[in-house]
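Below is a complete specimen:
___
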Amino acid sequence: MIPDVSSLPDLQNQHDTRGVPLDKVGIKGYEVPFTVLTKSNGVQQTAGKVSLYTSLNEEVKGANMSRYSQVVSKALDKGYISIHAIKDMLGACKHRLGSSESYVTAKFPFFLKKKAPVSGVESFSKYPAILEGRDTVRDGLRLFVTIGVQYMSLCPCSRQMSVVGTDEKGEVFGKGAHNQRSTGTLTVSLRDVNLDDSNAFVWLEDLIDIVENCASCPIWNALKRPDEQYVTEASYRNPKFVEDVARDVALILQKEEWVNRVNGFCFVTEHHESIHQYDAVCVKRGGEVYIP
């Protein structure tokens, strides 16, 4: 039985006389369970936080906050979290809440089970992911995917200063080089026209591969001794400045395969220096669409 609420005050629906429209009103950090599709045609159960905002007209006193959470729940009831669900929430905000502009962000951990490079022992790696959309008067519909990737970087200067010679295979060897765990955050702006084209769809795994392939070496959470030898030697053969990683990622995203799939990108890489008290940072943007 639905209770009678006619006698209860409804202040937020009252008329506001101050003549001040608001840019964003909504909810932040609504924690919900997610089902995520994987590139291998599997599904992954996870959880994340959704933030949802709309503009508010000058004559409306307040937004109905419970409707924001209802929009999220209804979109997720259809199945998995995806850029399509983000698009659905943007549309629901504008139509159900009567707003001219809407914004949605879904943040969640994405997991991959990875095999160590030599032993094949398996472990899980976590990648923070963000699906984001905005529908504004100025820019229209914009959809974004972000992934954070940790990797290993080895300093080219340190390596070069410690070089001793070359072995029988012609490979350089030396006394060592400092290396560190590093973080790359890659955001791409999607072409809306390609959302339903499976061949053009941007998978989180694809973005992870781009960053890891440009690193000195990927990292794994379980390594046997032969694996540890592998990552040590692989990173030594592939030294990378923070600028090197940024440029290599940009070169991949400038290829025709990716230009046809994304409007633009922003890559932020941070090397957490092992011999300094600061981090080395580089930012590279490309494409047509501005990404904040």
